[in-house]
Amino acid sequence: MSVTLPSIVLVPGAWTAPKAYHKLIGALEAKTFKAVREVVQPLVDAGQEVIMLMNSYGGIAGTSGIRNLTRKDRQARNLPGGAVSLIYMAGFMLSEGQTIRTVVQAVNLPGRSSLVKFSSDNSTWFPIDPIWLLYHDLSPEDQEEQVKLLKWGNAAILTGQTTYAAWKDIPTLYVRSLKNRWLPPQFQDFCLQNAADATAPVSVAALDSGHSPYVNFAAELAQSTFEAAIDARAHLS
Ligand SMILES: *[C@@H]1O[C@H](CO)[C@@H](O)[C@H](O)[C@H]1NC(C)=O
Ligand SMILES: *[C@@H]1O[C@H](CO)[C@@H](O)[C@H](O)[C@H]1NC(C)=O
Questions:
Q1: Which of 120, 146, 181, 224 gets the highest tally of CB atoms within 10 A of its CB?
Q2: What CA–CA distance (Å, rounded) separates 60 from 176?
Q3: Which segments of the protein form a coiled coil according to its record (predicted)?
Q4: What is the CATH number of the domain that holds 153?
């Protein structure tokens, strides 16, 4: 099950420039947390145990969207199902109140601003060299496929605060991506320091991947997900 929504094509009127719609576009993107919830809620209501597999900014939306939907929360209220496990693959694992910008500013690596470009009103952004930044370790065929699937993103996610750090409450696997240029190892260290500070029992694995291990380490991620499912089942029974 994926929480990717259909693409939305916003067609401007005769006199209106596309960027005039930025408030609506922002409001649509703000629904990301809600979109996560709308997918997870019916699953847990049906008694399903859910594993959240999160990439990049999905680490923020994916935990913020499941407040009160963890197995522990549900059990305390005599409700069935619930989120039992989290897996971060090249993802942001942040504490409540932190944003992507929090990490960028705290780690302060040189040259970060030359990696992305912004639209003239700063409402959307895009990688300047997506292959170098996100797909450098993929085959040319995979690079071509992934680049075609990219779209300009909402820049508001840079300052979108984490509202719930589910990794404090649920067994979590943080899969490091050692060659990641967009979410480099120093950013991953920041995330793991969050876990250490909160004494959260986060397991750590590592892949020799860039930002997109879901392409070239798909089998390894599938195996980790399978193992997390077995572990979660063992803890429940
Ligand atoms: C979670 O539960 C708390 C306490 O019951 C409640 O105040 C809050 O609104 C709930 N949050 C969500 C997102 O459902
Ligand atoms: C966009 O951001 C840049 C860099 O922060 C700033 O110089 C510029 O004034 C901003 N433009 C708008 C339209 O807000």
A1: 224
A2: 16
A3: none
A4: 3.40.50.1820
Q: Which helix (H) or strand (E) holds 116?
A: strand 116-118
Hey, is 138 helix, strand or coil?
coil
Single-letter amino acid, residue 90? A
Q: Which domain holds residue 125?
A: 7-234
Lookup result for tokens 């067609």: 11
Cα(22) to centroid of ligand 2, in Å?
15
In a domain, residue 198? The reply is yes
Instruction: Identify the residue whose C-alpha is closest to ligand 2 atom 13.
Output: 121
Asked, for residue 1, whether it belongs to a domain, the answer is no
Give, to the nearest 10 degrees, the angle between helix 185-197 and helix 100-107.
110
Tens-digit pLDDT profile for residues 89-140 = 999 999 999 999 999 999 999 999 999 999 998 888 999 999 999 999 999 9
| Entry pTM | 0.87
Q: Which atom of ligand 2 is nearest to the CA of 122?
A: 1
- Domains in the chain: how many in total? 1
